[in-house]
Amino acid sequence: MGEQQARQARGRGESRARAAVLSEAAFQVDSGAALWAKRVALVILGVAVLAIAAKVKAPMWPSPVPITLGTFAVLSIGAAYGPQLGLVTMLSYLVVGAVGFDVFAGSSAEKNGLAYMLGGTGGYLVGYVMAVFALGWFARRGWDRNVLLMAAAMLIGNVLIYAPGLAWLQYLVAGGLFNAEQFASPFEQTLAWGLTPYLIGDGIKLALAALLFPLLWRMVGDART
Questions:
Q1: What mean pLDDT is predicted for residues 163-181?
Q2: Longest Cα pair distance anywhere in the chain, in angstroms?
Q3: Residue 83 — φ and ψ, nearest 5°?
Q4: How confident is the model at residue 104 (pLDDT cuts 50, 70, 90)?
Q5: pLDDT tens, 189-200?
Q6: Res 225: pLDDT
Q7: Residue 171, SS3?
Q8: HEC profile for 32-94?
Q9: What whole-number distance in Å separates Cα of residue 101 and Cα of residue 120?
Q10: β-strands 57-58, 67-68: how paired?
Q11: How much is the average pLDDT of 31-41?
Q12: Close Cβ partners of 1 (under 8 Å, ≥ 6 residues apart)
């Protein structure tokens, strides 16, 4: 009896570790050509969503920097797609940007491609890759079905975006972009350029995702019953 209970407990643990993500629950295709068609369609849709979200901006008082939906889209796609498909989608997005398409928040028809990606935004793009995989990993464990756990996942995702982003920006500032007349140190300039103006917007997006994903799960569950 004890051995049977242990097997059941291991089975429950494996089930929790491999929970379905939202895209799998909403579009239930298990195998064959239909599964690969669904994956390709989701990657194309995800790249389009990332490109559009990067260009959406809204004023955010008292911050002088407008809020964008770029990070929200990155983290949401990671949670909705899972780690593998989310990572493929993010890498596809970066490839599209690398070949010269205007898909990033600060890119333009004249300023794009690898040259743009190696500028001040380069570290944040690396962070996108890390964060989308992390959110997918958390979603596989059911974090996106609970408000508090989803908020924690979003917070961790934002940290993963900012860590390489600020490190790379600090390297660029210390390497020649430091404005000694305006800032007391390169680190202060890095924070002013790459962190503090975005905190209010990130907090709003974190709260939105924490509320939205559990609601979407309830809607999917209701639709299946």
A1: 93
A2: 75
A3: -65, -45
A4: very high
A5: 999 999 998 898
A6: 47
A7: helix
A8: HHHHHHHHHHHHHHHHHHHHHHHHCEECCCCCCCCEECHHHHHHHHHHHHCHHHHHHHHHHHH
A9: 18
A10: antiparallel
A11: 88
A12: none
Q: Output b/e per residue, 30-46; b: 16+ Cβ within 10 A.
A: eeeeeeeebbeebbeeb
What lies within 8 Å, CB to CB, of 59 at 6+ separation is 66, 67
Query: What single-letter amino acid sits at 179?
Result: N
Quote the CA–CA distance of 204 and 50 in Å, as a whole number.
18
Residue with tokens 């190696």: 118
The dihedral sign for the CA sequence 66, 72, 73, 74: positive
pLDDT of residue 63: 57
H-type helices in the chain, by residue range?
2-17, 22-26, 32-55, 70-81, 83-98, 113-117, 122-140, 147-172, 186-194, 199-224
- At 94 the pLDDT is 97
Q: Residue 98: what pLDDT? A: 95
The pLDDT score that the predictor gives to residue 82 is 96
Mean pLDDT of the chain: 88
Distance CA 166, CA 168 (A): 5
- Distance, CA of 131 to CA of 79 (rounded, Å): 10
Place of tokens 């990671």: 78
Which domains, from first to last, does the chain contain?
19-224 (1.10.1760.20)
Predicted pLDDT of residue 9 = 46
Please tell me the predicted confidence (pLDDT) of residue 88: 98
Q: What is the pLDDT of residue 6?
A: 44
Question: Under DSSP, is residue 21 helix (H, G, I), strand (E, B) or coil?
Answer: coil
